[in-house]
Structures
1.
Amino acid sequence: KYEKIWLTTGISSLVLFLAILIITALHNGHTPAASGREYINPDRVDEIEPFNKPGLHKVSGKDYDYELVFVASAFSYQPAKVEIPKGSKVKIIATSKDTLHGFSLPGTNVNMMLEPGHISQYEKKFDEKREYLILCNEYCGIGHADMKSMIKVV
Ligand code: CUA
Protein backbone atom coordinates (compact mmCIF):
# COMPACT_ATOMS: atom_id res chain seq x y z
CA LYS A 1 0.00 0.00 0.00
CA TYR A 2 2.62 2.53 1.12
CA GLU A 3 4.85 1.52 -1.78
CA LYS A 4 2.10 2.46 -4.22
CA ILE A 5 1.65 5.89 -2.62
CA TRP A 6 5.38 6.56 -2.77
CA LEU A 7 5.53 5.44 -6.39
CA THR A 8 2.62 7.69 -7.35
CA THR A 9 4.17 10.66 -5.55
CA GLY A 10 7.51 10.01 -7.24
CA ILE A 11 6.05 9.79 -10.72
CA SER A 12 3.92 12.90 -10.17
CA SER A 13 6.97 14.91 -9.08
CA LEU A 14 8.91 13.71 -12.10
CA VAL A 15 6.09 14.66 -14.49
CA LEU A 16 5.77 18.09 -12.85
CA PHE A 17 9.54 18.62 -13.06
CA LEU A 18 9.62 17.69 -16.76
CA ALA A 19 6.64 19.95 -17.47
CA ILE A 20 8.44 22.90 -15.85
CA LEU A 21 11.58 22.16 -17.89
CA ILE A 22 9.62 22.02 -21.16
CA ILE A 23 7.65 25.20 -20.40
CA THR A 24 10.87 27.04 -19.48
CA ALA A 25 12.55 25.85 -22.69
CA LEU A 26 9.59 26.91 -24.86
CA HIS A 27 9.36 30.24 -23.11
CA ASN A 28 13.04 31.02 -23.69
CA GLY A 29 12.72 29.89 -27.28
CA HIS A 30 10.03 32.49 -27.87
CA THR A 31 11.94 35.34 -26.25
CA PRO A 32 15.26 35.33 -28.11
CA ALA A 33 16.39 38.53 -26.37
CA ALA A 34 16.54 36.65 -23.09
CA SER A 35 19.34 34.48 -24.37
CA GLY A 36 21.22 37.45 -25.86
CA ARG A 37 20.71 36.28 -29.43
CA GLU A 38 18.34 38.12 -31.66
CA TYR A 39 17.47 36.99 -35.15
CA ILE A 40 15.62 38.93 -37.81
CA ASN A 41 14.63 38.14 -41.36
CA PRO A 42 17.31 39.77 -43.57
CA ASP A 43 14.82 40.13 -46.44
CA ARG A 44 12.52 42.28 -44.29
CA VAL A 45 15.10 44.51 -42.57
CA ASP A 46 13.49 47.67 -44.01
CA GLU A 47 10.20 46.86 -42.25
CA ILE A 48 11.59 45.74 -38.89
CA GLU A 49 12.26 48.12 -35.99
CA PRO A 50 14.65 49.75 -35.42
CA PHE A 51 16.10 49.12 -38.90
CA ASN A 52 13.14 50.76 -40.65
CA LYS A 53 14.64 54.05 -39.43
CA PRO A 54 18.43 54.05 -39.78
CA GLY A 55 20.21 56.94 -38.08
CA LEU A 56 20.61 58.56 -34.67
CA HIS A 57 17.69 58.44 -32.24
CA LYS A 58 17.52 60.03 -28.79
CA VAL A 59 16.33 57.62 -26.11
CA SER A 60 15.29 58.13 -22.51
CA GLY A 61 15.25 55.86 -19.48
CA LYS A 62 18.28 53.87 -20.67
CA ASP A 63 21.89 54.00 -19.54
CA TYR A 64 22.87 55.51 -22.90
CA ASP A 65 21.72 58.70 -24.66
CA TYR A 66 21.23 57.62 -28.26
CA GLU A 67 20.62 54.59 -30.39
CA LEU A 68 22.53 54.71 -33.65
CA VAL A 69 21.01 52.33 -36.18
CA PHE A 70 22.97 51.14 -39.22
CA VAL A 71 21.89 48.92 -42.09
CA ALA A 72 24.67 47.49 -44.24
CA SER A 73 24.22 46.19 -47.76
CA ALA A 74 26.59 45.74 -50.69
CA PHE A 75 28.32 48.22 -50.85
CA SER A 76 27.15 50.94 -48.48
CA TYR A 77 25.80 51.77 -45.05
CA GLN A 78 22.60 53.55 -44.15
CA PRO A 79 23.09 56.27 -43.00
CA ALA A 80 26.11 57.29 -45.11
CA LYS A 81 27.07 59.95 -42.56
CA VAL A 82 25.86 60.83 -39.08
CA GLU A 83 26.55 63.61 -36.57
CA ILE A 84 26.71 62.87 -32.84
CA PRO A 85 26.76 65.54 -30.09
CA LYS A 86 30.02 65.43 -28.11
CA GLY A 87 29.80 63.58 -24.78
CA SER A 88 27.00 61.26 -25.90
CA LYS A 89 26.86 57.64 -24.90
CA VAL A 90 25.66 55.78 -27.96
CA LYS A 91 24.42 52.27 -28.52
CA ILE A 92 25.28 51.23 -32.06
CA ILE A 93 22.77 48.71 -33.42
CA ALA A 94 23.50 47.23 -36.83
CA THR A 95 22.65 44.44 -39.22
CA SER A 96 23.20 43.38 -42.83
CA LYS A 97 20.60 42.95 -45.54
CA ASP A 98 22.57 40.65 -47.79
CA THR A 99 25.96 39.18 -47.01
CA LEU A 100 28.58 39.34 -44.26
CA HIS A 101 29.93 42.87 -43.79
CA GLY A 102 32.27 44.46 -41.28
CA PHE A 103 31.75 47.56 -39.15
CA SER A 104 34.92 48.99 -37.74
CA LEU A 105 36.04 52.39 -36.49
CA PRO A 106 39.81 52.28 -36.96
CA GLY A 107 41.69 53.37 -33.84
CA THR A 108 38.81 52.38 -31.50
CA ASN A 109 37.50 49.16 -29.97
CA VAL A 110 34.54 49.15 -32.35
CA ASN A 111 34.98 46.19 -34.66
CA MET A 112 31.85 44.18 -35.40
CA MET A 113 30.77 41.58 -37.91
CA LEU A 114 27.39 42.26 -39.43
CA GLU A 115 25.74 39.00 -40.35
CA PRO A 116 22.45 38.85 -42.23
CA GLY A 117 19.74 37.78 -39.78
CA HIS A 118 21.75 38.85 -36.76
CA ILE A 119 21.80 42.08 -34.75
CA SER A 120 25.20 43.42 -33.66
CA GLN A 121 25.44 45.96 -30.84
CA TYR A 122 28.14 48.05 -29.24
CA GLU A 123 28.03 50.87 -26.69
CA LYS A 124 30.51 53.72 -26.96
CA LYS A 125 30.87 57.18 -25.47
CA PHE A 126 32.02 59.87 -27.89
CA ASP A 127 34.03 62.43 -25.89
CA GLU A 128 36.18 63.90 -28.63
CA LYS A 129 35.20 66.29 -31.39
CA ARG A 130 36.47 64.43 -34.43
CA GLU A 131 35.49 62.34 -37.40
CA TYR A 132 35.45 58.57 -37.39
CA LEU A 133 35.55 56.63 -40.61
CA ILE A 134 33.43 53.49 -40.60
CA LEU A 135 34.97 50.76 -42.74
CA CYS A 136 33.87 47.36 -43.92
CA ASN A 137 36.58 44.91 -42.93
CA GLU A 138 34.99 41.73 -44.25
CA TYR A 139 35.48 41.06 -47.94
CA CYS A 140 31.99 41.33 -49.41
CA GLY A 141 32.51 41.62 -53.15
CA ILE A 142 33.64 43.93 -55.92
CA GLY A 143 32.73 47.17 -54.10
CA HIS A 144 34.16 46.14 -50.73
CA ALA A 145 37.00 48.69 -50.69
CA ASP A 146 34.55 51.57 -51.24
CA MET A 147 32.15 50.52 -48.51
CA LYS A 148 32.29 53.17 -45.81
CA SER A 149 30.33 55.60 -43.69
CA MET A 150 31.27 58.34 -41.26
CA ILE A 151 30.54 59.46 -37.71
CA LYS A 152 31.19 63.12 -37.01
CA VAL A 153 31.27 64.14 -33.35
CA VAL A 154 30.21 67.78 -33.08
CU1 CUA B 1 30.95 45.18 -47.05
CU2 CUA B 1 33.20 44.53 -47.34
Note: The CA atoms of residues 22 and 28 lie 10 Å apart.
2.
Amino acid sequence: KVVCVTGASGYIASWLVKLLLQHGYTVKATVRDPNDPKKTEHLLTLDGAKERLHLLKADLLEEGSFDSVVDGCEGVFHTASPFYHKVTDPQAELIDPAVKGTLNVLRSCAKVQSIKRVVLTSSMVAVAFNGKPLAPDVVIDETWFSNAAVCEKSKLWYMLSKTLAEEDAWKFAKENAIDMVAINPGLVIGPFLQPTLNTSVETVLKLVNGAERFPNITYRLVDVRDVANAHILAFENPSASGRYCLVGRVMHSSEVLKILHELFPDLNLPEKCADDKPFVPIYLVSKERAESLGLNFTPVEVSKERAENLGLNFTPVEVSL
Ligand code: NDP
Protein backbone atom coordinates (compact mmCIF):
# COMPACT_ATOMS: atom_id res chain seq x y z
CA LYS A 1 0.00 0.00 0.00
CA VAL A 2 1.21 3.46 -0.89
CA VAL A 3 0.62 6.41 1.44
CA CYS A 4 1.80 10.02 1.57
CA VAL A 5 3.10 11.94 4.58
CA THR A 6 3.37 15.71 4.22
CA GLY A 7 6.06 17.54 6.22
CA ALA A 8 7.84 14.22 6.73
CA SER A 9 10.95 15.70 8.33
CA GLY A 10 9.01 16.98 11.35
CA TYR A 11 8.97 15.55 14.87
CA ILE A 12 5.63 13.73 14.69
CA ALA A 13 5.91 12.91 10.99
CA SER A 14 9.32 11.26 11.40
CA TRP A 15 7.82 8.82 13.89
CA LEU A 16 4.85 8.32 11.59
CA VAL A 17 7.14 7.51 8.65
CA LYS A 18 9.14 5.11 10.83
CA LEU A 19 6.00 3.24 11.95
CA LEU A 20 4.49 3.20 8.45
CA LEU A 21 7.68 1.65 7.06
CA GLN A 22 7.61 -0.87 9.91
CA HIS A 23 4.03 -1.75 8.93
CA GLY A 24 5.19 -2.45 5.35
CA TYR A 25 3.80 0.66 3.66
CA THR A 26 5.48 2.41 0.76
CA VAL A 27 5.75 6.05 1.84
CA LYS A 28 5.81 9.10 -0.41
CA ALA A 29 7.19 11.66 2.01
CA THR A 30 7.19 15.37 1.23
CA VAL A 31 9.84 17.80 2.45
CA ARG A 32 10.51 21.35 1.39
CA ASP A 33 14.17 20.70 0.67
CA PRO A 34 15.09 17.10 -0.19
CA ASN A 35 18.76 18.16 -0.46
CA ASP A 36 19.04 19.30 3.16
CA PRO A 37 20.57 16.36 5.09
CA LYS A 38 19.28 17.80 8.40
CA LYS A 39 15.77 17.23 7.11
CA THR A 40 16.27 13.91 5.37
CA GLU A 41 19.17 11.85 6.74
CA HIS A 42 17.24 10.50 9.74
CA LEU A 43 14.47 9.39 7.38
CA LEU A 44 16.74 7.80 4.79
CA THR A 45 18.38 5.61 7.45
CA LEU A 46 15.10 4.21 8.80
CA ASP A 47 14.48 0.46 8.41
CA GLY A 48 12.79 -0.13 5.06
CA ALA A 49 13.61 3.35 3.76
CA LYS A 50 15.92 2.15 1.04
CA GLU A 51 13.21 -0.02 -0.46
CA ARG A 52 10.01 1.88 0.29
CA LEU A 53 10.62 5.55 1.14
CA HIS A 54 10.39 8.17 -1.59
CA LEU A 55 11.34 11.71 -0.66
CA LEU A 56 9.60 14.34 -2.75
CA LYS A 57 9.72 18.09 -2.79
CA ALA A 58 6.51 19.97 -2.04
CA ASP A 59 5.56 23.29 -0.50
CA LEU A 60 2.28 24.07 1.21
CA LEU A 61 2.04 27.47 -0.43
CA GLU A 62 2.72 26.30 -3.96
CA GLU A 63 -0.52 25.59 -5.76
CA GLY A 64 -0.66 22.07 -7.16
CA SER A 65 2.58 21.12 -5.39
CA PHE A 66 1.02 17.93 -4.02
CA ASP A 67 -0.83 16.81 -7.18
CA SER A 68 1.68 14.24 -8.35
CA VAL A 69 2.64 13.27 -4.79
CA VAL A 70 -0.80 12.11 -3.68
CA ASP A 71 -1.62 10.49 -7.02
CA GLY A 72 -1.61 6.71 -6.52
CA CYS A 73 -1.76 6.92 -2.72
CA GLU A 74 -4.46 5.21 -0.67
CA GLY A 75 -3.87 7.36 2.35
CA VAL A 76 -2.62 10.89 2.89
CA PHE A 77 -1.35 11.98 6.29
CA HIS A 78 -1.26 15.75 6.28
CA THR A 79 1.01 16.74 9.14
CA ALA A 80 2.89 19.72 7.65
CA SER A 81 2.07 22.99 9.36
CA PRO A 82 4.31 25.54 11.05
CA PHE A 83 4.39 25.27 14.84
CA TYR A 84 5.92 28.36 16.46
CA HIS A 85 4.71 30.80 19.06
CA LYS A 86 7.05 33.72 18.36
CA VAL A 87 6.17 35.24 15.00
CA THR A 88 6.33 38.71 13.53
CA ASP A 89 3.77 38.22 10.77
CA PRO A 90 1.21 35.65 11.99
CA GLN A 91 -0.73 35.68 8.73
CA ALA A 92 2.27 34.89 6.53
CA GLU A 93 4.21 32.70 8.95
CA LEU A 94 1.41 30.63 10.49
CA ILE A 95 -2.08 31.17 9.18
CA ASP A 96 -1.44 31.04 5.44
CA PRO A 97 0.67 27.86 5.44
CA ALA A 98 -1.77 26.18 7.87
CA VAL A 99 -5.02 27.16 6.16
CA LYS A 100 -4.05 27.60 2.50
CA GLY A 101 -1.61 24.71 2.80
CA THR A 102 -4.27 22.33 4.12
CA LEU A 103 -6.68 23.33 1.37
CA ASN A 104 -3.89 22.97 -1.19
CA VAL A 105 -3.26 19.37 -0.07
CA LEU A 106 -6.97 18.58 0.03
CA ARG A 107 -7.50 20.05 -3.44
CA SER A 108 -4.82 17.67 -4.76
CA CYS A 109 -6.54 14.79 -2.94
CA ALA A 110 -9.90 15.68 -4.49
CA LYS A 111 -8.39 15.29 -7.97
CA VAL A 112 -7.37 11.64 -7.63
CA GLN A 113 -9.39 8.44 -7.33
CA SER A 114 -6.88 6.35 -5.38
CA ILE A 115 -7.28 8.05 -2.00
CA LYS A 116 -9.41 6.23 0.53
CA ARG A 117 -8.82 8.49 3.51
CA VAL A 118 -7.03 11.66 4.54
CA VAL A 119 -5.77 11.85 8.10
CA LEU A 120 -5.29 15.46 9.18
CA THR A 121 -2.93 16.32 12.02
CA SER A 122 -4.93 18.95 13.83
CA SER A 123 -4.36 19.77 17.49
CA MET A 124 -5.96 20.16 20.91
CA VAL A 125 -5.47 23.87 20.32
CA ALA A 126 -8.26 23.57 17.75
CA VAL A 127 -10.45 21.98 20.45
CA ALA A 128 -9.95 23.67 23.79
CA PHE A 129 -9.79 27.42 23.13
CA ASN A 130 -13.46 28.32 23.19
CA GLY A 131 -13.60 30.50 26.27
CA LYS A 132 -15.37 27.88 28.40
CA PRO A 133 -13.99 27.87 31.96
CA LEU A 134 -11.89 24.88 32.93
CA ALA A 135 -12.28 23.14 36.28
CA PRO A 136 -11.50 19.72 37.79
CA ASP A 137 -14.96 18.41 36.84
CA VAL A 138 -14.77 19.58 33.20
CA VAL A 139 -14.16 16.92 30.54
CA ILE A 140 -13.04 18.28 27.17
CA ASP A 141 -14.06 16.07 24.28
CA GLU A 142 -14.30 16.08 20.48
CA THR A 143 -17.54 18.08 20.50
CA TRP A 144 -15.54 21.14 21.61
CA PHE A 145 -14.17 23.38 18.87
CA SER A 146 -11.91 26.34 19.50
CA ASN A 147 -13.35 29.72 18.71
CA ALA A 148 -11.34 31.75 16.21
CA ALA A 149 -12.45 35.04 17.81
CA VAL A 150 -11.25 33.86 21.24
CA CYS A 151 -7.83 32.93 19.79
CA GLU A 152 -7.55 36.18 17.87
CA LYS A 153 -8.51 38.36 20.86
CA SER A 154 -5.68 36.84 22.90
CA LYS A 155 -3.27 36.90 19.94
CA LEU A 156 -2.94 33.11 20.12
CA TRP A 157 -1.78 32.91 16.51
CA TYR A 158 -0.71 29.26 16.38
CA MET A 159 -4.01 28.27 18.01
CA LEU A 160 -5.85 30.40 15.48
CA SER A 161 -3.96 28.84 12.55
CA LYS A 162 -4.86 25.29 13.61
CA THR A 163 -8.48 26.19 14.39
CA LEU A 164 -9.05 27.86 11.02
CA ALA A 165 -7.20 25.07 9.18
CA GLU A 166 -9.32 22.34 10.73
CA GLU A 167 -12.55 24.30 10.23
CA ASP A 168 -11.80 24.85 6.54
CA ALA A 169 -10.62 21.26 6.10
CA TRP A 170 -13.95 19.85 7.34
CA LYS A 171 -15.86 22.22 5.08
CA PHE A 172 -13.79 21.25 2.03
CA ALA A 173 -13.87 17.53 2.85
CA LYS A 174 -17.67 17.57 3.14
CA GLU A 175 -18.15 19.55 -0.06
CA ASN A 176 -15.82 17.25 -1.98
CA ALA A 177 -16.80 13.91 -0.41
CA ILE A 178 -13.32 13.29 1.01
CA ASP A 179 -13.18 10.73 3.82
CA MET A 180 -11.21 12.68 6.42
CA VAL A 181 -10.29 11.96 10.02
CA ALA A 182 -8.67 14.53 12.31
CA ILE A 183 -6.17 13.71 15.02
CA ASN A 184 -6.02 16.32 17.79
CA PRO A 185 -2.95 15.77 19.98
CA GLY A 186 -2.07 17.74 23.07
CA LEU A 187 1.51 18.86 23.67
CA VAL A 188 3.60 16.08 22.16
CA ILE A 189 6.63 14.88 24.09
CA GLY A 190 8.97 11.90 23.98
CA PRO A 191 12.03 10.85 21.99
CA PHE A 192 12.83 12.61 18.75
CA LEU A 193 14.33 11.14 15.60
CA GLN A 194 15.19 14.34 13.77
CA PRO A 195 18.39 16.29 14.59
CA THR A 196 16.66 19.61 15.30
CA LEU A 197 14.29 20.42 18.16
CA ASN A 198 10.66 21.13 17.50
CA THR A 199 8.54 23.53 19.57
CA SER A 200 6.93 21.02 21.94
CA VAL A 201 10.13 19.22 22.92
CA GLU A 202 11.88 22.56 23.19
CA THR A 203 9.20 23.66 25.66
CA VAL A 204 10.14 20.83 28.02
CA LEU A 205 13.87 21.26 27.41
CA LYS A 206 13.75 24.96 28.31
CA LEU A 207 12.17 24.08 31.64
CA VAL A 208 14.70 21.35 32.34
CA ASN A 209 17.78 23.40 31.44
CA GLY A 210 16.57 26.42 33.38
CA ALA A 211 16.07 28.70 30.35
CA GLU A 212 12.47 29.19 31.46
CA ARG A 213 10.79 29.00 34.85
CA PHE A 214 8.07 26.44 35.50
CA PRO A 215 4.91 28.45 34.78
CA ASN A 216 1.54 28.30 36.49
CA ILE A 217 -0.15 26.44 33.63
CA THR A 218 -1.46 23.00 32.82
CA TYR A 219 -0.15 20.84 29.98
CA ARG A 220 -2.12 18.33 27.92
CA LEU A 221 0.66 15.82 27.37
CA VAL A 222 0.85 12.93 24.94
CA ASP A 223 3.70 10.70 23.79
CA VAL A 224 4.89 11.10 20.19
CA ARG A 225 4.74 7.34 19.57
CA ASP A 226 1.07 7.28 20.59
CA VAL A 227 0.38 10.17 18.22
CA ALA A 228 2.06 8.42 15.28
CA ASN A 229 0.31 5.16 16.14
CA ALA A 230 -3.08 6.89 16.36
CA HIS A 231 -2.63 8.30 12.85
CA ILE A 232 -2.13 4.79 11.47
CA LEU A 233 -5.03 3.33 13.45
CA ALA A 234 -7.27 6.13 12.19
CA PHE A 235 -6.28 5.28 8.61
CA GLU A 236 -6.55 1.53 8.94
CA ASN A 237 -9.81 1.31 10.88
CA PRO A 238 -12.64 1.70 8.34
CA SER A 239 -15.07 2.87 11.01
CA ALA A 240 -12.84 5.69 12.24
CA SER A 241 -14.43 9.07 11.62
CA GLY A 242 -14.50 12.61 12.88
CA ARG A 243 -11.97 13.86 15.40
CA TYR A 244 -9.82 12.17 18.02
CA CYS A 245 -8.48 14.06 21.01
CA LEU A 246 -5.14 12.60 22.07
CA VAL A 247 -4.11 13.48 25.57
CA GLY A 248 -2.44 10.93 27.82
CA ARG A 249 -2.59 13.15 30.88
CA VAL A 250 -3.44 16.72 31.85
CA MET A 251 -0.85 17.94 34.34
CA HIS A 252 -0.04 21.13 36.12
CA SER A 253 3.57 22.14 35.58
CA SER A 254 4.16 21.61 39.32
CA GLU A 255 3.36 17.92 38.78
CA VAL A 256 5.76 17.77 35.83
CA LEU A 257 8.38 19.32 38.09
CA LYS A 258 7.70 16.71 40.79
CA ILE A 259 8.16 13.85 38.30
CA LEU A 260 11.36 15.40 36.92
CA HIS A 261 12.72 15.67 40.47
CA GLU A 262 12.01 11.98 41.02
CA LEU A 263 13.42 10.84 37.66
CA PHE A 264 16.45 13.11 37.53
CA PRO A 265 17.48 13.96 41.11
CA ASP A 266 20.85 15.27 39.89
CA LEU A 267 19.33 18.00 37.74
CA ASN A 268 19.46 21.45 39.24
CA LEU A 269 15.70 22.01 39.13
CA PRO A 270 13.76 24.62 41.09
CA GLU A 271 11.82 23.49 44.15
CA LYS A 272 8.52 24.89 42.91
CA CYS A 273 6.74 26.74 40.11
CA ALA A 274 7.50 30.38 39.49
CA ASP A 275 3.99 31.48 40.30
CA ASP A 276 1.62 29.14 42.05
CA LYS A 277 -1.07 31.30 43.64
CA PRO A 278 -3.68 30.22 42.82
CA PHE A 279 -2.84 27.14 40.76
CA VAL A 280 -4.47 27.08 37.33
CA PRO A 281 -7.08 24.32 37.64
CA ILE A 282 -6.61 20.89 36.23
CA TYR A 283 -9.36 19.30 34.08
CA LEU A 284 -9.80 16.17 31.97
CA VAL A 285 -9.69 15.34 28.27
CA SER A 286 -11.80 12.40 27.17
CA LYS A 287 -9.81 9.35 26.04
CA GLU A 288 -12.86 7.40 25.00
CA ARG A 289 -12.70 7.91 21.24
CA ALA A 290 -8.93 7.64 21.08
CA GLU A 291 -9.01 4.39 23.00
CA SER A 292 -11.67 3.01 20.71
CA LEU A 293 -9.57 3.56 17.61
CA GLY A 294 -8.00 0.14 17.56
CA LEU A 295 -11.03 -1.67 18.91
CA ASN A 296 -12.32 -4.81 17.17
CA PHE A 297 -15.84 -5.53 18.26
CA THR A 298 -14.78 -7.10 21.51
CA PRO A 299 -17.11 -9.60 23.25
CA VAL A 300 -18.84 -8.09 26.26
CA GLU A 301 -17.00 -10.30 28.75
CA VAL A 302 -13.69 -8.99 27.44
CA SER A 303 -14.90 -5.38 27.34
CA LYS A 304 -14.12 -4.98 31.00
CA GLU A 305 -10.46 -5.28 30.10
CA ARG A 306 -10.93 -2.84 27.25
CA ALA A 307 -7.62 -1.14 27.76
CA GLU A 308 -5.71 -4.33 27.06
CA ASN A 309 -7.56 -4.95 23.81
CA LEU A 310 -7.02 -1.56 22.31
CA GLY A 311 -4.54 -0.67 19.65
CA LEU A 312 -3.64 2.46 21.55
CA ASN A 313 -2.17 2.35 25.03
CA PHE A 314 -1.16 5.69 26.37
CA THR A 315 2.52 5.73 27.28
CA PRO A 316 2.97 6.94 30.84
CA VAL A 317 4.18 10.51 31.02
CA GLU A 318 7.11 9.32 33.16
CA VAL A 319 8.36 7.26 30.19
CA SER A 320 7.91 10.10 27.71
CA LEU A 321 9.89 12.55 29.80
P1 NDP B 1 7.75 20.23 13.34
O1 NDP B 1 8.09 21.66 13.47
O2 NDP B 1 8.73 19.23 13.79
O3 NDP B 1 7.29 19.90 11.87
C1 NDP B 1 6.52 20.76 11.11
C2 NDP B 1 6.59 20.31 9.69
O4 NDP B 1 5.80 21.19 8.87
C3 NDP B 1 8.01 20.35 9.14
O5 NDP B 1 8.25 19.16 8.47
C4 NDP B 1 7.98 21.53 8.17
O6 NDP B 1 8.79 21.34 7.03
C5 NDP B 1 6.54 21.51 7.71
N1 NDP B 1 6.19 22.82 7.14
C6 NDP B 1 6.07 23.99 7.77
N2 NDP B 1 5.77 24.94 6.87
C7 NDP B 1 5.73 24.35 5.66
C8 NDP B 1 5.49 24.79 4.31
N3 NDP B 1 5.23 26.07 4.02
N4 NDP B 1 5.52 23.88 3.30
C9 NDP B 1 5.78 22.58 3.56
N5 NDP B 1 6.03 22.11 4.81
C10 NDP B 1 6.00 22.99 5.82
O7 NDP B 1 6.37 20.09 14.13
P2 NDP B 1 5.60 18.90 14.82
O8 NDP B 1 6.04 17.58 14.36
O9 NDP B 1 5.60 19.21 16.26
O10 NDP B 1 4.14 19.17 14.26
C11 NDP B 1 3.61 18.49 13.16
C12 NDP B 1 2.13 18.72 13.09
O11 NDP B 1 1.54 18.34 14.32
C13 NDP B 1 1.73 20.17 12.86
O12 NDP B 1 0.57 20.16 12.06
C14 NDP B 1 1.39 20.67 14.26
O13 NDP B 1 0.48 21.73 14.24
C15 NDP B 1 0.75 19.40 14.83
N6 NDP B 1 0.75 19.32 16.28
C16 NDP B 1 1.94 19.33 16.98
C17 NDP B 1 1.92 19.20 18.35
C18 NDP B 1 3.16 19.17 19.16
O14 NDP B 1 3.09 19.30 20.40
N7 NDP B 1 4.33 18.96 18.56
C19 NDP B 1 0.64 19.13 19.09
C20 NDP B 1 -0.53 19.08 18.26
C21 NDP B 1 -0.46 19.19 16.91
P3 NDP B 1 10.32 21.75 7.00
O15 NDP B 1 11.01 20.62 7.67
O16 NDP B 1 10.61 21.90 5.56
O17 NDP B 1 10.47 23.01 7.78
Note: Residues 90-111 form the longest helix (22 residues).
